[in-house]
């Protein structure tokens, strides 16, 4: 049954993506930029509905009160394609710093440019990076939210932390609070696998780390706060979903946590 539901979900997921991009494209490009956010946010909501109805997976968000007013850096755990789009409906006007090659993709790249995402050459240095930082600072100054994954790439649940120092540089140079977010969607939508598992999980939005700390102190604080909350949430999620097949990283981390009790 899980295999059949997973196959059905994946098929309908991509049909939904293509259909909405085609049908909603005129509205998207003819609307003012902020109004046009309705299209990707509505797509995200429809995916939540499909995940619930087809697979049987639901989620809840704790800590929405921790989201500050104005500009800030939104720093979630990154385990799955789910967390790329899932929280967009709860952010007023987010943007990403993304590799410039994505801007060249037909239609998708036009969507990206409409929302003033900030493209960057990953090997960029010097003046190019200074220009990227200026763009990001200008967007944040208008009250937008920069989404950055502190570990840079998708990591399986329970994997040892590999936070990149880039988040500390952004924190220092942009002078904005950072909102940490922990969750374990990778237990239900594993990376690089087509299987989708039913169950329920939480997304926890933690209190912001205010600007002004030394970058090294900030990074240590971020890692401590996120990993402590992530460990507790992993234990809770697995306890509430005993049917889940755990990836080796999650099983190993649970064993380590049990020996610490």
TrEMBL record:
One of its GO terms (molecular function) is 1-acylglycerol-3-phosphate O-acyltransferase activity. The chain crosses the membrane at residues 7-30. The keyword Acyltransferase applies. It comes from the Bacteria. It holds the Pfam family Acyltransferase. Keywords: Acyltransferase, Membrane, Transferase, Transmembrane, Transmembrane helix. InterPro entries: Plipid/glycerol_acylTrfase. Pathway: Lipid metabolism. Residues 72-186 form the Phospholipid/glycerol acyltransferase domain. It is an enzyme of class 2 (transferase). The keyword Methyltransferase does not apply. SMART domains: PlsC. Signal peptide: none annotated. Its EC number is 2.3.1.51. PANTHER family: 1-ACYL-SN-GLYCEROL-3-PHOSPHATE ACYLTRANSFERASE. This is 1-acyl-sn-glycerol-3-phosphate acyltransferase. The lineage of its organism: Bacteria, Pseudomonadati, Pseudomonadota, Alphaproteobacteria, Hyphomicrobiales.
């Amino acid at each position: 049954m899980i295999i059949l539901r997973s196959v059905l979900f994946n098929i309908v997921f991509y049909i939904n993506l293509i259909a909405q991009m085609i049908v909603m494209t005129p509205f998207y490009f003819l609307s003012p930029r902020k109004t046009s956010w309705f299209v990707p946010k509505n797509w995200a909501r429809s995916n939540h509905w499909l995940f619930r109805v087809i697979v049987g997976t639901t989620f809840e968000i704790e800590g929405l009160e921790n989201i500050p007013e104005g500009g800030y850096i939104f720093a979630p755990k990154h385990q799955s394609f789910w967390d790329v789009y899932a929280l967009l409906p709860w952010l007023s006007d987010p943007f990403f710093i993304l590799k410039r090659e994505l801007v060249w993709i037909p239609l998708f790249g036009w969507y990206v440019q409409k929302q003033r995402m900030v493209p960057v050459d990953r090997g960029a240095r010097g003046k190019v990076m200074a220009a990227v930082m200026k763009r990001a600072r200008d967007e944040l100054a208008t009250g937008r939210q920069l989404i950055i994954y502190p570990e840079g790439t998708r990591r399986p649940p329970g994997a040892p932390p590999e936070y990149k120092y880039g988040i500390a540089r952004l924190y220092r140079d942009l002078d904005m609070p950072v909102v940490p977010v922990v969750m374990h969607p990778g237990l239900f939508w594993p990376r690089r696998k087509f299987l989708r598992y039913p169950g329920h999980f939480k997304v926890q939005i933690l209190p912001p780390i205010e600007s002004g700390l030394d970058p090294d102190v900030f990074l240590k604080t971020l890692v401590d706060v996120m990993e402590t909350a992530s460990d507790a949430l992993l234990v809770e999620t697995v306890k509430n979903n005993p049917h889940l097949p755990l990836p080796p990283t999650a099983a190993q981390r649970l064993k380590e946590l049990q020996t610490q009790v």
